[in-house]
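I'd like us to work through together how a protein chain folds, taking it slowly. We need material for that, and I hope you will provide a protein of your own picking. Go ahead whenever you are ready, and we will take it from there:
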Amino acid sequence: MKYLAAYLLLVQGGNASPSAADIKAVIDSVGLEVDEARINALLSSLEGKGSLDEIIAAGAQKFASVPAGGVATGGAAAAGASSGAAGEAAAEKEEEAKEESDDDMGFGLFD
């Protein structure tokens, strides 16, 4: 991830196609260890893919097709029942949290 972050910083700074030496210089500047093989793997995976904007746009299209979860469809009655059950579960958790409080044990986590 640090190699990609360095690459993105260089592109944002005006270097349209950062080299391995450029990425290494950024990572060295903050005192981190550099793995040249990972830099080369990043650069080879980006090679021939177009501009960074095009790559990001293509990735955004892929994310748009990924389901994001949520409540299953089943009508208003099911939604009402699940919200009522969620409210009851939240109340139970709140009561449990009060019972398991650090105040009851006589010490705090950071004392």
Summary: The CA atoms of residues 15 and 35 lie 21 Å apart.
